[in-house]
Automatic annotation (TrEMBL):
The protein, known as: Undecaprenyl-diphosphatase
Alphabetically ordered keywords of this record: Antibiotic resistance, Cell membrane, Cell shape, Cell wall biogenesis/degradation, Hydrolase, Membrane, Peptidoglycan synthesis, Transmembrane, Transmembrane helix
Membrane topology: Multi-pass membrane protein
Gene: uppP
Organism: Clostridium oceanicum
Main location: membrane
Length: 285
């Protein structure tokens, strides 16, 4: 059997969707489910594929923030080995990431199978609308208030925990991990660009942790040459697009509000819901 070029093109499309949507507040998982359903890219491989290309997006975080990650890791252990005499900044940052990751880690471990059962187009549509409304409300209430934190190293443990608690919302497909953590940042008194950057770092343990179980349980005996090529190409595409989008997204947040993303989510959810209810569009996973 030869290589299925059409299938690989579909994988490229999903990779682009992941790269564009992973770090902006519109839900990458939701978009991949909907687009995958629309182009008939679904099934067990598609689920594993989505997990792998999300790791491509995470690699983009590691590459873009490699210096910060490297320095923080070194300082974290330096603080431990010198009994607090050196590396205080990196240690504090590391603790913040750990604390911010605990809530979703607990929820993910306790309710893994129930969460996976939510990964359906109908849930995504609801998540789009509800998440968009929450984004509008919380931005209106908190964004213009005095945010004392405009440096990622100034985030406190309590603020990191608040962000982590809001990140729990992202277990619902369509809600968006980026939107959830940024809303948590607003509530905690963190400026929007810094909240967005902190969400990038929280994505590393959250997504690596959730991906590990899926990749371990996947039946690799079904893999063919086409599937392996699709997997590698999708990973690379998601990685490249994520790097481009992350830079532009942070620059955007320094100048403009996120209202446009909330409006897009609500309108997209209403449109998709209408199409499904009227049987104009049928979505499957």
């Amino acid at each position: 059997m030869g290589i299925d070029i059409i299938f690989i093109l579909k994988a490229i499309i999903i990779g682009i969707v992941e790269g564009i949507t992973e770090f902006v507040p519109v839900s990458s998982t939701g978009h991949m489910i909907l687009v995958g359903s629309a182009i008939n890219f679904n099934g067990e491989f598609a689920k594993m594929f989505e997990v792998v290309i999300q790791l491509g997006a995470i690699l983009a975080v590691v590459v873009l923030y490699f210096k910060k990650i490297k320095e923080s890791i070194i300082e974290f252990f330096k603080f431990i080995f010198t009994k607090g005499k050196e590396g205080k900044v990196g240690f504090k940052f590391g603790i913040n990431v750990i604390v911010g990751s605990i809530p979703i880690g607990i929820v993910g471990a306790l309710f893994y199978h129930r969460i996976k059962a939510l990964f359906r187009p109908e849930a995504v549509i609801i998540g789009f609308i509800v998440g968009g409304i929450l984004l509008l409300i919380i931005e209106t209430i908190y964004r213009k208030k005095n945010h004392s934190v405009d440096d990622i190293d100034s985030i406190t443990v309590v603020q990191a925990l608040k962000v982590g608690v809001l990140q729990i919302l992202s277990v619902v497909p369509g809600m968006s991990r980026s939107a959830s953590t940024i809303m948590g940042g607003w509530i905690a008194g963190i400026s929007t660009p810094i909240a967005a950057e902190f969400s990038f770092f929280l994505a590393i343990p959250a997504m690596v942790g959730s991906s590990a179980k899926d990749l371990f349980e996947f039946d690799y005996s079904i893999m063919t040459e086409t599937l392996w090529i699709a997997l590698v190409v999708g990973f690379i595409v998601a990685f490249i697009v994520s790097i481009i989008v992350m830079n532009k997204f942070v620059s955007y947040l320094k100048k403009k509000p996120m209202r446009i993303f909330a409006i897009y989510r609500i309108l997209a959810g209403i449109l998709l819901g209408t199409l499904v209810i009227t049987n104009v569009m049928k979505l499957t996973v």
